[in-house]
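seq as requested:
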Amino acid sequence: MNVIEALHHLIPDAEFSVSANKYSGLEWLDDRPKPTKKKLEDAWAELQSPEYAKEKVRDSISLTRRKFMLGIEFYPWGSGTLREAILSVIFSLTGKQKRKIQIEMDESNSFQRNDKAIKMMATAIGMTDTDVDDFFTWAENEEWENQP
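struct tokens:
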């Protein structure tokens, strides 16, 4: 077990000192109760689970503006491209919601997988979480050098 990682996962802002990365070497400096060895072992087990690994990857998926824009231009979706589907949703919006999405699309330097705007657009065009993951993975790995 990695005591430091387990502690950071269980209590992200905890104050402690540890030697040899072992529970027996843990000096608890925080005002909150010191977690038991069992709690740390459970936290470590969670960090090692495939479900946690998938969520961590999903949270960290990010695309540069160029890759995102080129990606939506060429990614097939429905009877056209992802760009066409997104634009149809944007054009159907009104007021503050439309303006917020336009600003997000026009001014973002990067796009995070879990951005609220991405989630809203994905839902509006019928994309599942798996569809969005697949798009981000595809756009990140595509060879864009030959594209405009």
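The helical segments are 3-10, 37-48, 50-60, 65-74, 82-92, 95-107, 116-125, 129-141.
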